[in-house]
Structure formats: C-alpha cells, structure tokens
Amino acid sequence: MTSPVIDSTLPPTDEISDEELTEIGRLLSIGRCFDLSVYKAKCMKRRVAIRMRSTRCRDAAAYCGLLRQNALELDLLQKTLTIHVSQFFRNPSMFEKLRSEVLPPLFRAGRNGLAESLRISCLGCASGEEPYSLAILLREHFGRELRRTATTIFGTDIDAETLEAARQAEYNEDRLKEVPQETRERYFRRHGARLRLIPEIREMVTFGQGDIAAVGGYAASNLVLCRNTLIYFTRPDQERILNGIADILPPGGILVLGKSETMVGDARLRFAPLCTMERIYRRV
Q1: For residue 166, how far is the Cα from the chain centroid?
Q2: Rounded-to-integer distance, Cα 174 and Cα 155, Å
Q3: Percent of the chain with pLDDT over 70
Q4: pLDDT score at 100
Q5: 124 CB-near residues (< 8 Å, 6+ apart)
Q6: In the beta sheet, which residues pair with residue 208?
Q7: CA–CA separation, 142 and 25 (whole Å)
Q8: Are 36 and 25 in contact (CB under 8 A)?
C-alpha cells in the first residue's frame, strides 16, 4: 500500500472536520461494514478529498449527502481508502534476505519433522505482486525443497476487485522494474500491451478476501508479510494487528514489515529482531 498522489487542486484536508469524517465513517459502516476508525484520520481525510474532487462536491456535507444517495460512490470511496499499489520484488534486498537467511531454516524445520508444511501469508497483497514474487523466488531457488515440503502461499486483501486482478496476473511494465530480463522471459508472457505470469506461478498462490483489521480471520502461517500497511492504522490498532499476527505464528515463525514500520507496544515482547534493516522479526 502506498500514499495517494497529492493533487494541489483537491479540497484541503483541514476543511474536512473530525465530525464530518466520523459521519463518513458511519455511512461506510452501515453501507459497507467498513470500519474507518482504525485508520489514521489525516490519511483518510486526504483520500476522502480525492473523491470529493472527483465528484465535484463543494464540501464534506455535500459529499455525505451524495454517499447517502449513491451506493456506487460508497464502493468507489472504500476502494480509494484502501488503494493498493505495488510492484514485483519491491525492496530487492528484503527478498534476498528471505532467500539467504529466512527460507532455508523454515524448510529445514519441515524436513526435520518440526513442521509438516510451509505456509506463507501476504496480508494486504494488493494485485498480487508480492505473493507472486515469493512464488518466483521459491521456484528459482528452492525447487528441491518444494518437492519435499508442501508449500502454500496465501494473499489476502479487503478489495474484491483488486483480488480479481491478482488472479488474472496481468501487469504493466512499470510493475516489473525490479525483475531481471531473464526472469521476465522465464515467467512472463506478452499479453497485448501487458505481461502475464505463466500458469505454473499463478497456481502457486491462493487469494482470498480479508480485512487486516479483522485479526480473527488470519490463517496459521510460518511466514507472514505485512508490508507498508500498518502505517495507515492508528497505534492501538497497529499493536492489535501485530499481536494477531503473533497469535498465528509458531515459535520461530517469521514476520516481515515495511521499511517505515516497526514493532509497537507489548507486541515487541513477542518478537525478536532478525534483521532490523529489513524489518524482519522472529516469533519468540
């Protein structure tokens, strides 16, 4: 997840009061069961302003009126509030750390009978670039381990339309900036103006709809990636999410956060840093 593009022509976020944001949150809760309160208000106001500009609403009161009358706008607003943008092998050094130091011990644990399978979860997976990057990494470097250990990769996101795009696995060139040419040629095929992943990689990843804020819905995993997502949540909810992840990781399980994220609150007691630079933590 990344910050939205800021347009100087948008209504200033300070013109959206806390009370108006609360009312917008109430409408989303009633109409779409979407909890706005767990997200940082400043970020949400900025994204609401994007939709206000798009709909030519003069102020937040007019926009609330539109939301009450227009179900489609509720859908568009929720999509804007949870917009995801990613790319393949984002932060290549993190993927290299997974290859060299994280995945080998996880596979060895499975081979030694400490785990019957390896389960990887990508929370907030957007249109699938991150879980597919992991699938490529595994296919490139852990072919023997994949034959010995049942390995599954799950990608979850709150937006159903985004998940459908992930299943299609077709991407513009800009999403592959970090992918070496030989890897492109091996795992992607030209599909019109876009590039599509080959079936062997697509079939390694399963996608499902899930809200990161709903910690009870997390699946038990050995490795969890939750990158560039926590920054949009309030501190109490960051702590709640981190504890929820700790609950579904076994001792020795791994959590990867984004470069601008870190442990907060008592969740810090449940993880030990494995690589602080790459924000990789081991469940204690």
Answers
A1: 12
A2: 21
A3: 93
A4: 97
A5: 1, 84, 156, 157, 158, 212, 226, 227, 228, 229
A6: 156
A7: 45
A8: yes
Enumerate the β-bridge partners of residue 205. 153
Of 246, 226, 36, give the one whose Cα is nearest residue 124: 226
Q: What CATH number has the domain spanning 92-283?
A: 3.40.50.150
On whether the CB atoms of residues 283 and 224 are closer than 8 A, the answer is no
- Please name which of 260, 88, 229 lies closest in space to residue 245, comparing C-alpha atoms: 229
Q: State residue 2's pLDDT score.
A: 38
Per-residue pLDDT reduced to its tens digit, 175-196: 999 999 999 999 999 999 999 9
**Gap between the Cα atoms of 82 and 162, Å rounded:** 10
**pTM score, whole prediction:** 0.85
Pinpoint the residues of the chain covered by CATH 3.40.50.150.
92-283
> What confidence tens digit (pLDDT) does each residue in 134-177 have?
999 999 999 999 999 999 999 999 988 899 999 999 999 999 99
